[in-house]
Design goal:
This protein has 301 residues and is α+β, with helices and mostly antiparallel strands. It has 3 domains: 2-139, Sandwich (Immunoglobulin-like), CATH 2.60.40; 148-152 and 207-293, no CATH class; 157-206, no CATH class. The chain contains 6 helices and 15 strands. Helix 5 (219-238) packs antiparallel against helix 6. It is elongated.
């Protein structure tokens, strides 16, 4: 912008020199036209400047290490004009086209700054209102945990009647009750016992697993903790096993449920947005055979 003003002033100075050198009528016309040029350019560009809006074209989430450049587009219904802007990401300021910092898990708060919309000559600019901060969640990649089978064995503790009956690996023999299906009657045992006996299909009643972790530590430790949480949660969901996540965050313990892959991703986003725990506050202050504590050590098994 300063360079354009210097160029304009140099042009204006040249017109003044030309006027004193030749003293002709058309020299006055040229000088008057150059004097009015900034105002004329502003008047022509003002409708475009006032209606141009910046829209960030950033995703709501990405995977750790995924490359995403700073990108946005200006919506100009009355025509395009010159623009300039930067993106504030945390404490850093990024120019359009530069890469976002996705080396570690976390939530990036992105806000447009120094947004300027120039007139057609680039001599004046307008600062529009910008939208609120854009949140970009950098999610982890799954990190396997070797002792998951042991956790799976801890969960099956009881059996319950299978809804609707049908085939099952385990069955229970009991006396017939009004309302039971006649197809479930075990005729041989009924003949021996002298009473109607049914063979009821049973299914395992899985207790709810508890995945505990403390939000805090170095960025590398947080990457490992959340990566292990993603892997464990995905495996539990594949086995139709219920679980909840207990996380020490700030001055409280977060307890979050996940019953689907979408819910698991929502839990991860809430953990990414939560503040770190004060000190090394543990999330597992009790013992349970259904509890698994997730650490951030490199050699955890």
């Amino acid at each position: 912008m300063l360079r354009r003003w210097l160029l304009y002033l140099a042009t204006l100075a040249g017109c003044i020199v030309f006027l004193f050198a030749y003293q002709q009528r058309y020299a006055w016309v040229i000088l008057l036209a150059v004097l009015c040029l900034p105002l004329l350019g502003l008047m022509v560009s003002l409708p475009m400047m006032l209606t141009t809006k910046l829209r960030l074209t950033l995703p709501s989430h990405c995977v750790i290490g995924e490359h995403f450049p700073v990108s946005g587009e200006f919506h100009a219904p009355l025509g395009n004009t010159q623009t300039h802007w930067h993106l504030q990401v945390g404490q850093a300021r990024k120019a359009p086209g530069t890469a976002l910092p996705t080396q570690h898990c976390g939530m990036l708060l992105c806000r447009p700054v120094r947004v300027r919309i120039y007139d057609c000559l680039g001599l004046f600019f307008f600062v529009p209102r910008t939208k609120k901060e854009h949140r970009l969640f950098v999610r982890p990649t799954a990190l396997p945990v070797s002792d998951f089978p042991e956790l799976e064995r801890r969960l099956t503790q009881a059996w319950r009647p299978k809804y609707g009956g049908g085939l099952a690996e385990n069955h229970e023999i009991r006396l017939y009750r009004p309302g039971d299906s006649l197809n479930q009657i075990h005729w041989k045992l009924s003949a021996k016992a002298g009473k109607l006996v049914i063979r009821e299909a049973m299914e395992p009643l899985n207790s709810q697993a508890i995945l505990a972790l403390t939000l805090g530590g170095t960025p590398e430790e947080m990457d490992r903790k959340l990566g292990r949480l993603l892997w464990l949660g995905s495996r539990l969901l594949e086995q139709n096993l219920q679980f909840c996540v207990r996380a020490a965050s700030g001055k409280q313990i977060l307890q979050l449920q996940a019953d689907s892959p979408e819910a698991l991703m929502s839990v991860l986003d809430q953990l990414l947005a939560a503040p770190p725990a004060a000190g090394d506050a543990p999330a597992d202050s009790f013992y349970s055979p259904r509890l698994y504590t997730i650490g951030g050590e490199p050699d955890e098994n």
